[in-house]
Design goal:
Rossmann fold, nine-stranded mixed beta sheet, 24 strands
């Protein structure tokens, strides 16, 4: 046996042990007893786990959230516990009953009394816990338990399907982190809304939560190449007023808001600039009052404290708040230089505080939550979402994804209520579905219904890759200019220096290609199951709609890539021209470069509006179609 084989066996054993440790039973508090097939059950319960292997913990956490989001998209009731729960349970495929204590933040899926709905509940649970015909990677299972006895007066949040709008303006960065967390955790209803359309498109029917990433609030630098003028401020103020009005109306009508860093800045009702404080406290209390500088969703002011470390610790001071579920007493967030919070008002509660910074920040609020009208707002001083971003190398990815998922569930949930379980199913009902759904076979012969679509996707991947390669050349050229002219890369007047261009190439294009490749896999699976469902006219109609939607989006992406390539060529010429002139004589060229840089940077972001939805829409159709098919087969 060679060294490579031995190493592979060691890694395999380690992962197997880690997975088994993570998904094992919670510690039992009462002895077990035998149960029969006619034992009555009240629903299912699933609980995120903690284990020593952070990678496995993250994978299990993401898979549980995927299952919960699948259930919610199927309009199946799911409840999120607001307190610890002692529940009498039976493990799937087990015969012993035991009483187990589940931490708050556990998901309860009660039976409804509707046979079709209850069948679909078992079918979906089976795909995640037992066997899945539509997933290539089916090794990692999650633990779902059967509720043996009714729970009485357990305080819960009734969850809603998360329909996420991501705010984007030229001064914000970090949307990609929220996007990846949404993708990995199954929040698949996601749309990017830029400043110019947010006032018209943000509404409470299509969306129920708005996320606002961090950024650099230097409006004039990012919007215009000329020195600030009264005309510019008038135009910007009008846009800012319309955006602020739309956001305030959206939240006050019952939707949610999640802001980090700059997104937390604007969510407050004021800011402290050195010794000067601007505070519009009344705006935070009254949703009907207008606001232009701040959204005023919470009554706090923000200030800019400084911490040197890359990550900062957060002490949870309110462990009853849903955002804090499964995080422990002390947790982490990425330090992006965001605000601290001061003058916390009566309609805002503190969730976490800075700790172990060895500065005056210790004890200052850094995570807060607020009620605004009928809606909820959550603000993070720094960046927990960056910890949840897979391309940011960290062993705390599970923390970021837990925090943001908690915030998404909380801001979109209904008001807390006491849960009563009344509908029952026999254990034999569950076991029969488990046995039958495990026997469904998918024919290995596929139907080529997406050939043209997949060819277009492959060509689009090539377009994106070519444009990415060209941008990398520009990044090299910018670095070369910075060295020659002895300019700090971050101070180059192109706004495409060390930060923006690097992020765009390394993360965005990589993620765009990943989503398109994932779409190809999803379409391949749809082709495999097509022969089983082609007699359903609704499914065939949905397939045609999906193909038309993908074709439309692909056409826009390829158009953007073509234009982007031309902009690269134009930008390269301008950079070379700038490189050949002395710095003291090139002020006009700097302004022109800045203008080109802004337009190019913004142009790249427009791809963001099309690529993720191609994958998300395909995956949602696949899962919905398969669950309906499996459930219908069980009822025959």
């Amino acid at each position: 046996m060679n060294k490579k084989t031995i190493a592979l066996l060691i890694v395999t054993c380690f992962l197997t042990i880690s997975i088994n440790q993570c998904i094992a039973h919670p510690e039992s508090s009462i002895g077990s007893q035998e149960v029969g097939e006619d034992t009555l059950c009240y629903g299912l319960i699933a609980s995120p786990v903690k284990c020593e292997n952070a990678t496995i913990q993250d994978q299990i956490g993401c898979k549980i959230r995927h299952m919960i989001n699948d259930l919610l998209r199927e309009q199946i009731p799911v409840y999120w516990t607001a307190e610890d729960v002692d529940a009498s349970i039976i493990e799937i495929n087990g015969s012993e009953e035991e009483t187990v204590s589940f931490e708050k933040g556990t998901f309860i899926i009660p039976f409804t009394g509707n046979t079709s709905v209850d069948t679909k509940i078992i079918v979906i649970m089976c795909d995640y816990n037992y066997s899945s015909e539509i997933e290539e990677d089916n090794e990692l299972k999650i633990s779902v338990y059967i509720l043996r006895e009714p729970l009485s007066n357990v305080h819960v949040y009734p969850l809603s399907e998360v329909k996420l709008a991501q705010h984007k303006s030229p001064i914000t960065v970090g949307e990609i982190c929220f996007l990846e967390i949404s993708s990995e955790c199954g929040f698949l209803s996601f749309e990017l809304l830029i400043d110019s359309v947010i006032a018209e498109k943000l509404n409470n029917n299509e969306f129920n939560v708005l996320t606002h990433a961090g950024g650099v609030p230097d409006y004039a630098t990012f919007y215009k190449i000329e020195p600030p003028t009264m005309v510019f401020y008038a135009l910007y103020s009008d846009l800012k007023y319309r955006v602020s009005t739309a956001v305030r109306k959206f939240v006050s009508n019952g939707s949610g808001y999640i802001g980090s860093c700059y997104g937390a800045d604007v969510a407050g009702s004021g800011h402290k600039f050195g010794p000067v404080t601007i505070h519009f406290k009344r705006v935070a209390y009254n949703p009907k009052l207008p606001s232009i500088v701040y959204y005023g969703l919470a009554d706090y002011i923000s200030l800019r404290p400084h911490v040197d470390t890359e990550q900062t610790q957060v002490k949870i001071v309110n462990d009853t708040h849903p955002v804090s579920y499964r995080l422990g007493e002390v947790t982490w967030e990425y330090n992006g230089g965001g605000p601290g919070f001061d003058r916390i008002g009566e309609n805002t509660q503190v969730i976490g505080e800075f700790c172990n910074t060895d500065t005056e920040l210790d004890g200052r609020p850094c995570w807060v939550s607020s009620k605004f009208g009928k809606g909820r707002a959550v603000a993070f001083s720094r960046h927990p979402e960056i910890l949840g971003f897979g391309f940011y190398k960290s062993n705390r990815t599970h923390i970021g994804r837990t925090v943001i998922s908690n915030a998404l569930f909380y801001t979109t949930a209904k008001e807390m209520t006491a849960l009563q379980l009344s509908h029952m199913r026999s254990l034999s009902f569950i076991e029969e579905i488990l046995a039958e759904t495990g026997d469904i076979q998918i024919d290995t012969n596929t139907v080529d219904i997406f050939n043209e679509t997949k060819n277009a996707i492959n060509e689009t991947i090539e377009d994106i890759t070519n444009l990415s390669d060209y941008v990398k050349q520009l990044e090299f050229l910018i670095g070369e200019i910075a060295d020659e002219k002895k300019i700090n890369l971050n101070e180059l007047p192109t706004f495409l220096g060390d930060n923006s261009l690097h992020i765009t190439v390394k993360y965005y294009y990589h993620l765009f290609v990943k989503y398109l490749e994932n779409t190809m896999e999803t379409l391949n699976t749809l082709e495999k199951i097509y022969p089983l469902l082609e007699s359903d006219p609704e499914f065939v109609k949905q397939i045609e709609t999906l193909k038309a939607d993908i074709s439309s989006r692909i056409a826009e992406i390829r158009k953007i890539c073509t234009q982007g390539y031309e902009m690269c060529e134009d930008y390269e010429k301008a950079l070379l021209n700038y490189q050949q002139h002395p710095l003291i004589l090139s002020r006009v060229k700097e302004f022109l470069l800045t203008d080109k840089g802004h337009k190019f940077y913004w142009h790249i972001y427009s791809v963001f509006s099309y690529v993720p939805q191609i994958y998300f829409n395909s995956l949602k159709l696949l899962r919905n179609s398969w669950y309906n098919y499996e459930a219908s087969m069980m009822e025959l």
